[in-house]
């Protein structure tokens, strides 16, 4: 079969909503785009554990601590499914992780902001996990099978995360004057970075056109961002708080909320490594990798010995 024939079969599968599986022929660029996106997603899950992990020892009650601990562990699980999905595309875990540590691979800009108060844990759950779900629900229908299947479970867990975040803010919003202020302050600081999670405007997005054709992405960056604004603009009414955007207003004609412009200079600055916590996050990941060396060695030695024992038996 010629490459043209193989490509035709591949495109027919995409057209007919048949998932592409690891052993199927796929264009090199499709493989590369998936490796890029899935591994960056995996890195985001793992780096995303850091700002929240920062509050495990300071959660206000034992119950809150247990919930936060479970949530952070869920993120590790998400990283695991996603690194495994990346491996099905023919790249090793070591290579993807090296790309993160060397700064070659990106992770979501959002995790380069600090968590200053307990209300930030609420804002992350509500806004950051909320934005993540908005994006990831469409990814349950992405064309690469292992990625789509990983997303189904991840979305279920993320929706629990979002509710726990909203509940933290709901309690604070009904609390003392100081608690209300803390709640508003966290919303003020996380709102714009959460909107940045969806990536550049469609017209500036390098990969969108091709990714939409291959059905890796099903909705555009701007479309998802608009859906998110529409959802949060309603939910914030329950909290009795305000979103920090004077342009936010219901547009009856468009049946959407209008909203202000993102500070793109800030976005690209953070993406390029100059956000408030970029260095701290990468240093923490590199340290964890170095300190985990003995665990990887022990596991590999155990597996090798067990294989030899089984072969001899
Ligand atoms: N941060 O052509 P574009 C989570 C990069 S959190 C950093 O539109 P694409 C979690 C982009 O990579 C969320 N970089 O790209 C929640 C590209 O650069 P490269 C993680 C960004 O891929 C709570 C360039 O800008 N979710 O899971 O078509 C706790 C041009 O962009 C960002 C995912 O990763 C950004 N915000 O669309 C713990 C979802 N935005 O790669 C964890 C999967 C853009 O050419 N990913 N860039 O060097 C996606 O859906 C897509 O990759 C994006 C971007 C929508 C993010």
Structure description:
The chain has 313 residues and is mostly helical. Helix content is 69%, strand content 2%. It contains 13 helices and 2 strands; from the N terminus they run ααααααααααββααα. A two-stranded antiparallel sheet has the order 1-2. Helix 6 (118-139) packs across helix 10 (221-239). It is globular. The model has no long low-confidence stretch (mean pLDDT 97). It binds benzoyl coenzyme A.
Q: What attributes characterize this protein structure?
A:
mainly alpha; binds benzoyl coenzyme A; 313 residues; 13 helices; single chain; two-stranded antiparallel sheet
Give me the secondary-structure topology.
Elements (H helix, E strand, L loop, with lengths): L2 H13 L12 H20 L1 H5 L8 H26 L5 H10 L15 H22 L5 H29 L3 H20 L11 H6 L7 H19 L9 E3 L4 E3 L5 H11 L3 H14 L1 H20 L1
Antiparallel strand pairs: 1-2
The protein binds benzoyl coenzyme A.
The site of benzoyl coenzyme A has 28 residues, from helix 2, helix 6 and helix 9.
